[in-house]
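Why should sequence recovery work at all? Because a backbone constrains its sequence more than one might expect. Tight turns favour small or flexible residues, buried strands favour hydrophobic ones, and helices have their own preferences. The token representation captures these environments compactly. In the example below, the structure is given first.
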């Protein structure tokens, strides 16, 4: 099935679609389906605390998950705003909506740039309030984790740093999904820093970085014209396509290695059930890197592998505990 055929049910947002329903408009602007990518690493962090014998306090666990999702929503919205400023979304004619090319809310006139910016920063402010609510339970170390997350989320696309434009976007995603969110979720329960959430979620962080990476293939021409020189632009598609496969090998190999070293319990090998999706996506990228309009199934497979891996890893930790 070609990419165009696989997207027939995805319709870009229009003003008419949200007429008279401002709440739905703002909720949709956060790209809700993609917020699962931050929901899952929060579950991993809660699971590592539980596996370590820490009693889970459920109201703080729920609040932590909500905070992780809202900060991700804010980063999504601000990324749309800054990509509207640099022009990349406006000139992107090869996008694979809804996976690449932004939410299209600004470009299609559903939200103005100023509305988008105010909404994004408001979401980050709500996240900060949730963090303060958790301080009494977790301790002041949560401030360090929270500030690091907010800084990376803002600097990912905001000038003058614009980290994704300088080849550091994948590192930001890996740090957010594979380090800060699971570390913060674990810290809220444990009340102290521990290496286990960082190690357990490291493969998830790589898979999250791979999702950003594969999304850049359809967007590469527009990104290059807008001055976003990420690694797909720098390497060119023929060389860049192999990086994805290498990341998959490291991610799943790292999981096996941690189980073999008794860092993680054997039940965590359940997460390997996501590996076939990653392998299929890698092979599709190798084949279609130069015809990115056919990459929608590979992107969908990457999303499935990311979420499947994280959920199964969490389940494995809970069973083992």
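From this structural description, the recovered sequence reads:
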């Amino acid at each position: 099935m070609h990419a165009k055929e696989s997207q027939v049910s995805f319709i870009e947002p229009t003003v008419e679609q949200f007429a008279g329903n401002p709440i739905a408009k703002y909720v949709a602007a956060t790209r809700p389906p993609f917020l699962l990518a931050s929901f899952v690493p929060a579950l991993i962090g809660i699971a590592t605390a539980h596996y370590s014998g820490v009693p889970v306090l459920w109201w703080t666990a729920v609040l932590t998950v909500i905070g992780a999702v809202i900060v991700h929503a804010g980063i999504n919205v601000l990324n749309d705003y800054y990509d509207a400023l640099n022009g990349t979304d406006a000139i992107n004619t090869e996008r694979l909506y809804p996976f690449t090319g932004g939410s299209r809310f600004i470009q299609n006139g559903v939200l103005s740039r100023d509305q988008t910016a105010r909404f994004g920063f408001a979401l980050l402010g709500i996240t900060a309030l949730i963090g303060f609510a958790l301080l009494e339970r977790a301790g002041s170390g949560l401030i360090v984790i929270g500030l690091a997350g907010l800084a990376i989320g803002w600097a990912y696309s905001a000038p003058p740093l614009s980290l994704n434009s300088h080849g550091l976007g994948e590192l930001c995603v890996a740090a957010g999904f594979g380090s800060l969110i699971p570390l913060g979720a674990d810290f809220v329960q444990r009340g102290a820093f521990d290496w286990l959430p960082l190690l357990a979620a490291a493969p998830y962080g790589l898979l999250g970085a791979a999702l950003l990476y594969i999304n850049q293939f359809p967007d590469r021409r527009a990104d290059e014209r807008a001055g976003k020189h990420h690694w797909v632009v720098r390497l060119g598609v023929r060389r860049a396509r192999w990086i994805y496969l290498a990341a998959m090998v490291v991610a799943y190999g790292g999981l096996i290695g941690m189980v073999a070293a008794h860092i993680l319990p054997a039940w965590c090998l359940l997460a390997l059930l996501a590996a076939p999706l990653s392998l299929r996506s890698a092979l599709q990228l190798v084949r279609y890197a130069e015809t990115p309009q056919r990459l929608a199934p590979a992107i969908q497979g990457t999303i499935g592998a990311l979420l499947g891996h994280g959920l199964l890893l969490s389940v494995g930790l809970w069973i083992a505990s």
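A few observations help interpret the result. The chain is about 70% helix and 0% strand.
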